[in-house]
Every structure is written in C-alpha cells, then in structure tokens.
Amino acid sequence: MRAIKDSVHDYIEVDGVASALLDTPQVQRLRHIKQLSTVRLVYPSANHTRFEHSLGVYHLADRALDHLGVSGARADKARAAALLHDIGHGPYGHQTEGIIERRLGRHHDDVSDLLGDGPVADVLADYGLDPDGVADLIAGDGQLGQLVAGELDVDRMDYLVRDAHHTGVPYGTVDHGRLVRALAFRDDDLVLAEGNVATAESLLVARALMNATVYRHHVSRIAGGMLERASERLLDTSSLSVSEFARMTDDELLAALREHDETEEFVRRLAERDLYKRAAWCERSAVPEDVVVADHDQVREFEREIADAAGVPEKHVVVDTPGRPSMPESSARVVVNGDTKRLADHSALVEGMQHSQEVQWRFGVYAPEDDTEAVGRAAQRVLGLSGVGDAVDY
Question: Nearest 5°: CA angle at 76, between 59 and 56?
C-alpha cells in the first residue's frame, strides 16, 4: 500500500489496481495538465494538476464504496474508473475539449480506446477487470457510474474543494465527509439519505459561487477563447493530427503553438498575459436568442462578419457565448419523508440559484486593446446586441 500526501485530503492510501494504474503513462500524463487551465492567469496559486484531482476522486470513491458496502471486483472496477476518469482530457483540459469532440467525435468521458490496449489494459487484465465495464462507469452508466459521473459524484466533490483550496477563495468548500456518508442506493439510483436536503444544497451553492468567481472569470474566458482559436488554427495549418493533439500535455501544446508561424502571436500573448480585452460584455437580455444558442460554426461565422465590419483581421475577434445556463446539481435525488425527489422539486434555494445564474450570465466579444472600440461597434451591428458596455460583474 502507498500513502500519498495530498494538500486537500491529507494522506491518501492507494493499493491494488489503483496503485498499479498510477504508474501507467496515461495516468502520469495527468501530472502535466493543469486542473484549472487558464484560471491560473487570474489566481496565480491555481497550479494544481489533474493527477492530484484524480487521486482525490479515487480517495472519495474508495470511502464512498466502503460506506455503501460495495466490495470485491465491483469495488475495484469503480476505484479504477475514479482514478482513470480524466485520462481522456486533452491539453488544457476542458479548454480543448470542444475541438477534440468536434474533430474526433469523442467526448473526454469516452475512454474506451484508451483502455482497450496498452499499459492500462494490461493492469486491468491483471486484476480481472473488463475495460469496457470501467469505461462505462467513467461515462456515468449504472449505479456506480453515478458515483463517478453523476449529479452527486465524487468528481464534483473533489474539484470544488480542491479548486477553492488552490485559488484561495472560500466559496467552493463543501462537507465532502458528510456528503459521502449520506450517499445511499435506492431503486438503482444514487441518492442522499433522509435529512440531507441542505447537504445537497451545499453543492449547488458551492458550484454557483465558484462559477461566478473562478470558473467563468472574464480573464480566464478571454484567455481560453484565445487558446481555443490558436489550437484550431494550429490543426488547420500544420501537419499535426487531431489524435496527436488530443494526447499532448499543456507544455507540449504551448511549444507546438510557439513553433508555428500562424499561432506564435497567440502563444506570446498567453505567455506574457498580454490578453485581448472586452469589446462587448453583455447581459442575457441584451443578446438575441439565436446568438445565445449559436453552435461552433455559427460563432465562427459571427467572428468573420464582425472582423469584416470592423476592418480588422479575423484572428483579432473572439466571440464567446456560454449558451443557456444549466444546473445539473438541481437534478440530484434526495430522500424526503420516505420518498425520493429531485432537489429542484423540494428546495426553494434552487429557484434562487437559477435566477442567480441568469443574472451572472455574460456574453463576450474580445479583441486586441487597440481594436476593441471598432470591434464592439461592429459586434453590436452584426449580432443585434442591445449594448456593448461592461455590465456589472458579480
């Protein structure tokens, strides 16, 4: 058994299949992918990695499995899924997820190809575990899949606490010990036992506050939009394949961007924190619905039209729409007076949090500082925005 010192959970004991999986290249690669991507340009101490997070998710899953009375091969499969749940991420994690999904047709939770052969497959075989079964749990299928990837999953419990710890903000702190002990199986669903409505609400509040202050901070969104455009340009104008791109680390991606003439300027700006500025920053009511729900191709067309109207190069315009607000935690199931109910159906707090998301929602258009005025006016004309000035940030 290994005892690994962790900044959040103190010592994490790792043995069996999880200990063997730790030393595989697929898991070790996660040491070189930052958990919070471009957020570290806002919070300098947010340099923790997906490797640390994966250990934390394994730890909480292990505790939950003991509490739920799950043992043997079934528990080993869930422990393996918890540790491996992030190996499908590309460089910079969620920041490049859309690129990989559009070009390979694979979400980061779809890891069947990574578990089917190679060192991970060998370890799973040594412990008699079916790779497809582990992949199904990572995708959220079945009872134990809900523990790894569901509304009450240990992934969310760990990253909220870990991200709050490393950014230094107080908002993401949740009582994961209480959450784990409150878990129960009921009618094939993972639920929180009687008396835990407030426990479920704590996840809701933590996620909402972290969204507002950390995950959707406008500086991180600007840097993320620039990185995504640079990555797409790299794939469109170089010999790098999407499969190679998907297995890069953060540093490998930055090196590739730096060495390519078409993307060198983007990576220089990211490295020096010389970021684009807000040319438009609008509340939900100021943005037409067709712009709110625009898909990737439509957004790129918006960028071309705005650049043409503003008389600037296309690469000087980044349109950033977060889509409709969502709150998956509100679907968490809790036992109330003996009946299983969705949190949204029994919590007055949910409605308030949903309204808060609407209030905090922002649509952005970004450009180099010298171009922001022209790009802002063009965005207003092209997209039909009611206003382009800075709205109040929450």
Answer: 15
